[in-house]
Specification:
two-stranded antiparallel sheet
Length: 59
């Protein structure tokens, strides 16, 4: 599984990037959150839980 960001819901708050414990970080902030390192995802769902707009889901 890997995280997917709904660009229409993302408000670029950076919470997902700040909470991600993976190394390297799965996310990078651009115009919206971008899944820059999907293979680093450890499927902990921290990003899903912290996202204030429910823009992230693991698939």
């Amino acid at each position: 599984m890997r995280p997917y960001v709904d660009e229409d819901l993302c408000i670029t708050c950076g919470m997902c990037e700040a909470e991600c414990p993976a190394d390297p970080n799965v996310f990078e902030m651009e115009d919206v959150a971008v899944v820059a390192n999907p293979d680093a995802c450890i499927e902990c769902e921290a990003c899903v839980e912290v996202c204030p707009t429910d823009a992230i889901e693991l698939k």
